[in-house]
Recover the amino acids of this structure.
């Protein structure tokens, strides 16, 4: 049986400016059923309107972060339109992560494969335990990871992304760190504390400043060099006029702690 659309597959708590989202489908390695993707997207969209949540963390219950799409649900029939809707749901989820005002951190344990690896690549930052493993293994079952490829090619050097996509092989956390898929590797017992410390460090900054920076970062990525500089020059000029920049510079010069407006 597949998940009921009313079953809570995502839990949320907000503490000290950090929103902790947990995928609660641990018995299935948090495979991305349609219902789980809908609930996760809904929670993210709600958080976008909650300024008290300055950083978002996504994690998975059970033995792994996320095993990708729910293949049983995806192939229960060969209705191409229904399958297309599943991939459209996934695209909406991944774009919601990128477009979310707040930075998003993936807290990875166990496995992150296929669309689960895509989820990691779509987050702004990622921290993994040292035993975590990553893969885009669709090629092994005749289903190339074409949608995970979109996120991978925007996070990794092309040859690293192609190696993952063409071989379908698992890579360990150290290798994922080397190629830029994740930011940090820590011992399992330190994972929660490390993510919390990182999230709190970001949450202590000006919310306006961080959100402005995230938006500009993704916008300039694919712009021609001259356009990127023009765009970001305008962003910095506007940022400089904001009360948080005025306060921050004054606090820096006065050697005191700033008080942010957001």
């Amino acid at each position: 049986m597949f998940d009921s659309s009313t079953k809570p597959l995502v839990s949320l708590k907000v503490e000290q400016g950090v929103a902790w989202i947990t995928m609660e489908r641990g018995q299935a390695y948090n495979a991305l059923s349609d219902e789980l993707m809908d609930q996760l997207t809904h929670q993210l969209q709600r958080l976008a309107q909650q300024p008290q949540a300055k950083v978002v963390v996504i994690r998975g219950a059970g033995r792994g972060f996320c095993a990708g799409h729910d293949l049983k649900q995806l192939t229960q029939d060969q209705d191409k339109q229904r399958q297309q809707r599943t991939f459209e749901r996934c695209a909406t989820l991944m774009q919601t992560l990128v477009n979310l005002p707040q930075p998003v951190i993936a807290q990875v344990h166990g496995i992150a494969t296929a669309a689960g690896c895509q989820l990691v690549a779509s987050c702004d930052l990622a921290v993994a335990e040292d035993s975590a493993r990553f893969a885009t293994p669709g090629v092994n079952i005749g289903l190339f990871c074409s949608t995970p490829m979109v996120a991978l090619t925007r996070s990794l050097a092309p040859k690293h992304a192609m190696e993952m996509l063409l071989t379908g092989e698992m890579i360990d956390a150290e290798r994922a760190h080397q190629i830029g898929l994740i930011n940090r590797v820590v011992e399992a017992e330190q994972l929660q504390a490390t993510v919390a410390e990182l999230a709190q460090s970001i949450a202590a900054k000006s919310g306006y400043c961080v959100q402005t920076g995230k938006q500009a970062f993704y916008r300039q990525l694919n712009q021609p060099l001259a356009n990127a500089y023009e765009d970001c020059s305008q962003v910095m000029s506007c940022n400089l006029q904001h009360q948080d920049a005025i306060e921050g510079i004054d606090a820096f010069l006065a050697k005191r702690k700033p008080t942010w407006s957001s």
